[in-house]
Design a protein that fits this description.
- The chain has one domain.
- The chain is mainly alpha-helical.
- The protein is globular and about 40 Å long.
- Helix 2 crosses helix 4 and helix 4 packs antiparallel against helix 5.
- The chain starts with 11 loop residues before the first helix and ends with a helix.
Amino acid sequence: MLRPTGLWPKTFKQAYCEKFHCLEEAYEKEVFWRCLYRHALPFAASIYRKKPEFFREDFDLIREVGNMEDADTFRSEINFYYGRNIRERNWLRRKLCIRLSAKRLMKLKNDVFRTPLLTAVLLR
């Protein structure tokens, strides 16, 4: 069956798990810790142990983009997430950025779908 142009050959979750050799059950947590703002890591670890629901929006986003099969929909969902965080009332999430970095998630998507051949051509 032919796939429409612009669609990835796999969902983001499938491609991520294949590239990083992770079990699909570990996908959400791996992406979460990989895409947090770096300065947020120690705070996030403490908050996550005591109140994991604080990161509900982040895990919802990770779950949502995991099912994506094209870059436009992925970008749209990231933009929606970013907008929610701009309007967020919780100062830990908004001002201190104790949350996922949308930019890190976009870079991760680019890394996951970068082909070795394309990388070799670009590095010449």
